[in-house]
Structure formats: structure tokens, C-alpha cells
Specification:
Strand 9, helix 5 and strand 10 form a beta-alpha-beta unit. The protein is built from ten helices and 13 strands. The chain has 391 residues and is α+β, with helices and mostly antiparallel strands. It is 33% helix and 23% strand. It has a four-stranded mixed β-sheet, with helices on one face. The longest helix is centred in the first third of the chain and has 19 residues.
Length: 391
């Protein structure tokens, strides 16, 4: 039966994404000084104000050095996004820092696991997903939603006099065939902040060819199906227009609703938190299963208990697209990767300051070498041969 499916993305200038960027910037700052630092940083942003809260653990000798760098790092992140508005300017907003020492109860749960390795930082369940809809093995709706906003951000930053502002949202609705294959785009919605006095038609003239260039041949929609700033004027954007918080865009961060989500956010959390690291591991495994042609689509769930190193469950669903027995794939997954928190961090090189660039346009489907460093290691497909040999 044919159907429509929709996903949305939000730009780096969206209020919640501003907060994700700040939280991950602080995480990177700590990891740059101490790779084993523990960080759980939450950010609130509103009109002319940014507030940090959360818990950290680091060598007390270097804590003062890190602390004096926090405010400049926050302001630099907001400047890079592009906020120089009267009521939210990177150089003028009030800043408050309420980060404090990590709870000793959490510390002992992580560092004194019930078996030989360190325990998970919390209980929880995480999902990973991959499918063949795009070359990056991501669902197509979220893939194109991200691409549209990344392109707009690049255009805005390359042209200082651009009519575009930092805050924007995209939404892509795809048409699927009776066989569940993507056959085209039905509707695209784009809402973007803009300079004063700019009309919707001026924005449409700028963005229409940009969007058309990003889509496969024949997929561009008609003018009636390309909805630009449906409410009209969008001059006040970012935290001045709407308060932002870390971790409120978890579906944007993952698969656009095409796959389940365990519920935990990623940004601001160091990789001992399985909310983040195990979600990356699950994507890594699911992507390698699909890349190995063991399935056309794959969902993996990992579940953990606080203080216990190995997952309490590993679940694989190939959605009836595999000729391989599911149990064989589950056993292979456990063979090719140590799914303890430390095993994940080691294999995926997660103890590095790589996280600020993950905070917008999705944590998955990104280039392995993006930002000039081995950032998105969980997008590598170096497990393909091992998986094939085990099934």
C-alpha cells in the first residue's frame, strides 16, 4: 500500500540546537584537557541570557584552567552560529555557570561495576538504524531535511550580507510505493529567519534552486508544494524568539521518526553515558549489517543497567528483509564489538573532543572525515567482512 512519510530538521540556529551546541562545546573543552572527564552539561538559552547547569568530574588541579575557558567558549560557539541580534548577541548576553561536581553515587556506579569493567553510567535503552534509501544508509526524509538546512547555513555564512538568519526549520514529505520504496517528494516546508523587510518571494527565489540541486533528478516539487515561511514574517529568531534547552530535538538528531528512539538525548554527555555512546554503537552495527547486505534495513536495540558493563539485552530486527537467521546476526554483533561502555569508547575513539560538530544536522549519516578529523567513526563500515564471515 502506497503511503507518505515526513521528517523534519532544525538548523544550528534553532534555540534548542544553540543549547545542544553550547553543551557539546563544553564537553569538548573538558575532553580536550582530560579524555576521561565526566560531563553532563545542560544549557538554557533565552532573551539575552545563557545558563549552564550539570555535573562534571575532572582532576581538581586542572579544573580552574578549564573553568576560566568556559564563558569564552560559549560566546565563541554562539558567534559561530551567527547570533548578533539586539536581544541575543554573542558578546552581550548574560552568562551564568552552575556546573558542579558529579554525584559520588553516580561515580561509584560507573567506576565500580559489578564485573571486571566499568559500569554503564545509567540504565536505559538505545536504538540504531540503517536502511538503503540513501548512500549514507539513512532514511531519505531526514537525510534531505538536513541537507536543505546545511546548504542554507553555508550560503548564509559565505555571504555576510545574506537575507537569511540563523534560525530555520525544514520538513520533507516523501511518497512511497506499494513495495515501500521511495518514489519522490510530495511536499517540502521551509521556515527560515530573515532580515527585516525581506519578502517571502525573495526568500523563495533564493532557496528554490538550492533545494532543487540537493534532490535527485525529477524529485523537485511544484511551487504549490514548496511551502516557504507559511506564517509570513520570521524576523525574530533564536533564543530571543523562543527559549531553548539541551536535548529537545532527539528525533532530529537520529532518524526523523523512521526508527524507534530510546528517549535519551546525546548533547552535553560524555561517552561513559550509554545514552550517547551505545546509540552510536547501535547505529554503527546496524549500518554495517546493511552495508554487508545481510539486510535491506536493520534496527538494533541495546539495553543497560547502571553499574553493569555489558548490555542486559541485544535485539536485532531486520524487518523481514534478510535471508539470514536473526539469532546468527545477534551472535555476530556480540562477536565483532565489545559493547561495554569502555569497549565502545575504545573502538569508536569517543574520548576525543569531537562533539560540537555533531550538535546540528544529525548525529548519523555524516561523513567520517567531516570537520577535518575522524569525527563520525560510527559511520565507518569496517565491520562488513567480519560480519559476513560470522553468519
Amino acid at each position: 500500500m502506497a503511503y507518505l512519510f515526513t521528517s523534519e530538521s532544525v538548523s544550528e540556529g534553532h534555540p534548542d540546537k544553540v543549547c545542544d551546541r553550547i553543551s557539546d562545546t563544553i564537553l569538548d573543552l573538558f575532553l580536550d584537557h582530560e579524555p576521561e572527564a565526566r560531563v553532563a552539561c545542560e544549557t538554557l538559552a533565552t532573551t539575552n541570557r545563557v545558563v549552564l547547569a550539570g555535573e562534571v568530574r575532572v582532576d581538581k588541579k586542572i579544573l580552574p584552567l578549564i573553568t576560566e575557558k568556559i564563558e569564552p567558549a560559549v560566546r565563541s560557539a554562539v558567534k559561530d552560529i551567527g547570533y548578533m541580534q539586539e536581544k541575543f548577541h554573542f558578546n552581550h548576553f548574560e552568562f551564568q555557570n552552575y556546573l558542579h561536581e558529579q554525584s559520588v553515587d553516580i561515580s561509584q556506579g560507573v567506576d565500580s561495576g559489578k564485573d571486571k569493567d566499568e559500569g554503564a553510567g545509567d540504565q536505559g535503552l538505545m536504538f540504531g538504524y540503517a536502511c538503503r534509501e540513501t548512500p549514507s544508509l539513512m532514511p531519505a526524509a531526514i537525510h534531505y531535511s538536513h541537507l536543505i538546512l546545511k546548504k542554507l547555513a553555508n550560503v548564509r555564512k559565505e555571504h555576510p550580507g545574506s537575507i537569511l538568519g540563523p534560525d530555520s526549520k525544514s520538513q520533507v514529505t516523501l511518497r512511497y510505493s506499494d513495495e515501500g520504496e521511495v518514489i519522490g517528494v510530495d511536499t517540502i516546508i521551509l521556515s527560515t529567519q530573515h532580515k527585516k523587510g525581506v519578502t517571502v518571494e525573495e526568500i523563495r527565489k533564493l532557496v528554490t534552486p538550492l533545494i532543487a540541486d540537493l534532490l535527485p533528478v525529477g524529485w523537485m516539487v511544484s511551487k504549490e508544494k514548496l511551502l516557504i515561511n507559511p506564517t509570513g514574517k520570521f524576523e525574530i529568531g533564536g533564543p530571543d524568539g523562543d527559549a531553548g534547552l539541551t536535548g529537545r530535538k532527539i528525533i532530529v538528531d537520529t532518524y526523523g521518526g523512521a526508527a524507534p528512539h530510546g528517549g535519551g538525548a546525546f548533547s552535553g554527555k560524555d561517552p561513559t553515558k550509554v545514552d550517547r555512546s551505545a546509540a552510536y554503537a547501535a547505529r554503527y552495527l546496524a549500518k554495517n549489517i546493511v552495508a554487508a547486505e545481510l539486510a535491506k534495513k536493520c534496527t538494533i536495540q541495546l539495553a543497560y543497567a547502571i553499574g553493569v558493563s555489558q548490555p542486559v539485552s541485544v535485539y536485532v530486527d531486520t524487518h523481514q528483509t534478510s535471508g539470514v537467521e536473526k539469532k546468527k546476526i545477534e551472535n555476530a554483533v556480540k562477536e565483532v564489538m565489545d559493547l561495554s561502555p569502555r569497549g565502545i569508547r575504545t573502538q569508536l575513539k569517543l574520548n576525543n573532543p569531537i562533539y560540537a560538530c555533531t550538535s546540528a544536522y544529525g548525529h548519523f549519516g555524516r561523513e567520517f572525515e567531516e570537520m577535518g578529523k575522524n569525527t563520525f567513526t560510527w559511520e565507518n563500515t569496517n565491520l562488513v567482512d567480519a560480519l559476513k564471515s560470522l553468519v
